[in-house]
Amino acid sequence: MTNETLHTMGQQHGRRSWAEPWKIKMVEPLTVTERPAREAALIQAGYNTFLLRSDDVYIDLLTDSGTSAMSDRQWAGMMLGDESYAGSRNYYHLEEAVKRYYGYAYLVPTHQGRGAEHLISQVLIKPGDHIPGNMYFTTTRLHQELAGATFHDVIIDEAHDPTSLDPFKGNVDMAKLRGLVEEVGAAKIPYVSLAGTVNMAGGQPVSMANVRELHAYCAGLAIKLLLDATRMVENALFIQEREEGYAGRTIAQILLEFCSYTDGAWMSAKKDHLVNIGGWLAINDRDTFEELRNLVVVYEGLHTYGGMAGRDMEALAIGITEAVQDDHVRSRVGQVRYLGELLTEWDIPIVLPIGGHAIFLDAKRFYPHLAQDVFPAQTLACELYLDSGIRSMERGIVSAGRDPETGDHKRPKLELTRLTIPRRVYTQAHMDVVAESVKACFDARDAATGLRMVFEPKYLRFFQARFEPIV
Ligand code: F0G
Hints:
Low-confidence stretches: 1-6
Bound molecules: ligand F0G
Number of strands: 12
Oligomer: single chain
Distance between the termini: 41 Å
């Protein structure tokens, strides 16, 4: 696929531009700071963008998690919160929405995605088990490891190559999966952990053909196929655009079909579902559901709220319906593409094809003179913040953490800085400002010297680690 093809893929309606299917009713002022203030803030934050105060940030592209703008309907729904401890009517609205659009039989609400990951890992994993998945995600893998499993990356090799233009870089490599099953035995694999639009690979999708094949294979071995549905709506758009036979299907139809090949899902509703907090687990198997429903009361809250307020569940139920509208998904991913295309026109190295939720700058090619041990992607996140106050996130060696057995850094092939676009929050003009700031950092790239880590927490170190510049 050429860049030109990628470009036209973003313009489904010939030469006519898309625009957001909404207008703005309420605005939130942004703070523009000067460089000396940003230098001071970054020192205070230990050169970690997670430790900055949001008041010191101009355009916040740290994450698309919980940062989206709710609609007027969702805000109206907040006023209809039924805060009964048990059996809140908002829970039933949520249950109905999940069943209608995702199709699973039973629902367990949780406070956010990692709450769901914790429960499913505790219920299904026994110490010594193995979990294959299409690339790791930080919290997902940690919960699997804490439950006693070893995670195995079985994604296709192309996913680890930022320049490969494979249209479905999120796919599972069936040969790798078969190899693992032969090595450890199907009895040691409670489930395959399949993520829609793989976050750490650059927001890359899984094809319908791949999930269909996985379903047939796993069912034959009594291995469950579980979906991380966090950004599955965006995955459905890529299937609509790229996979034969799906151009005439709606996002909602594609989503439902995809989920039908899986046995259950966990969800960080803070992404696709356009809410600031929330999550859920859904499963078809009644016995597993009973165990999950029992455990949710230990860690999250009663099984009809799972850590969310009634009003949160109402906003979430409405958000699910808004999330699967074709014009919404097209404009959301269209904005990400707009930014990516500006950067590729300037020959700035990013992960291609452009993903669903973010632009991932390829820090290895951005800073070819920096070794991975001096944290090029973390360095780039700092340089970008210093240049303009734009906040991004490291997705490379810091995020990958340490090998639990050897204690050494894991050294992922992908060393990326993520510019994550919140849904319905920033305008095209903000994207222009972002692109220009990335360009300024690119022009000054030879001056970057890297960082050293001076404080390292035990779990999910990227959130709280501290660094100092190498001078
Ligand atoms: N799965 C995926 C694919 C995610 O991206 C996340 C969170 C989770 C699970 C965990 O959900 O945050 O609600 O507990 N990703 C955020 C991010 C934090 O910035 O990518 P959570």
